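lol so apparently i was supposed to do this last week
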Amino acid sequence: MRFAQRLDAVPPYLFAELERKIAEKRAEGVDVISLGIGDPDLPTPEPVIEALAAAARDAATHRYPTNHGSDEFRAAAAGFYRARFGVDLDPGSEIVPALGGKEAVGHVAMALLDPGDVCLSPDPGYPPYTSGAVFAGAEVHYLPLRAEQAFLPDLDTIPEAVLRRANLLFLDYPNNPTGAVVEDGYFERAVELAGANDLVVVHDNAYSELCYDGYRAPSFLETPGAKEVGVEIFSLSKGWNMTGWRAGLVAGNAEVVEAYRQLKTNLDSGMFEAVQRATVAALTDARDFPREMSAVYERRRDLLAEALAAIGLEVEPPQATPYFWVPVPDGHTSASFTELVLEEAAVVVSPGPSFGPSGEGFVRLSMTVPDDRLEEAARRIESSLRSGIIQA
Ligand SMILES: Cc1ncc(COP(=O)(O)O)c(C=O)c1O
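anyway here it is w/ pyridoxal-5'-phosphate bound
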C-alpha cells in the first residue's frame, strides 16, 4: 500500500505518542500518573447530560443535522457571547457549530491556505496549528513565544516577505502550552497587522472560561475591528468537561465562517442534533459551571505551585488554563527530564519541543487529575530528585 506524502510531513501526534507510552507502562502494572494531556477528570454538568439524554430519545434528532447548526444552537451561542463577552454576533451568518476546536483549527486552515501560502503559527503551540497548515500544502512560519515577551509573539518583527505570503495568523490566549494570558492592547495590534496585510486572524479560544484570581479572559471578538479580519474558535471541552462530546463553534467574520462551513459540508454532515441541544444547555442552564471548575483548578494550581517550588523547580503559576509551563532543572533537556520522570517517578509530562522548537527547556504539566494524585505526582518527582535518581 502507498499512503499520501502529507502524512509524512507531520510528526506523530504528540498525545498519541504519550498515550502509547502510558498504555505500555500500565500494561506492565505500573501506577502511572499522567499530567501529560489536558483532559478534565471531572464529569460534564448534569443539565448537559440530561439535555443529551432527552434529545437522544427524540427521533427528530436521529436524522442528518443542518450544517449551519440549529436556530437554537446559534441563538444560544449568540446569547452566551453577548452575556459573557459583550460581543454581538448575527446568529444567521456569524456562528457555525464545530465538532470541537481541533476540527475547526484544521479545517479553517484548509479553508484559508493554498500551497505557497504562509501560516503564522505560535511556537510553542497547539500542534494542529502546524499540521492543519501542512495538510493544506502551506508553509509554516513560527512565531516564537518567549518568557521575556510574556509568551506573546512579537508581531513587529515578522519579515515583510513572510507577511506578503501569509494568509493566516493563529493566536490562542489563554495560551496552551504556556498558560500565558493576553496583555491589554495586544489583540488591537493583531487586528491592525491583519488589516494592513490582508491577513486572517484565527483566535483559538479553548480556555477563556478557566481563569483564576478573579481574572476574566477576553474574547478576541471584543477587539474593535476583529470581525473585519478574523474569527474565534470557541470550545466547550475544557470549561464544561466535555472533551469527549466534540462541541465547539466558529464565530466572527461571516465570510470566513461561510468558507469553513462550505469546506465542512464536503467532509462531515454537521453536529449531532442531540449534542447541539446539550451544548445549548451548557451555554444557558450551565453557563456558570466553568466558574466552579475554575475554583477547582485554582485550588490545584496553588497546591502544585507550592509543591514545585519546594522541589526547587522555578514556576510561574498560571492565571488561566490547566497548565504549568515549567523550565526543566539545569543540566536537563526537555526530553531527558520527561524520560526520567516517566521512568523513575511514573509521572507523565509533555516535553516542550512537542509543541514546537521554542519549547525546548520546558515541560508542560496539566492539572487535570484529582488533587490527591497531583500531590502524589509532586511527591514522587520530589523523592526521585532528592534520592538523586533523576539527574542529568
Ligand atoms: C489551544 C487548543 N485549541 C483547541 C483545543 C481542542 O479542543 P477541542 O477539540 O476538544 O475543542 C485544545 C485542546 O487541548 C487546545 O489546547
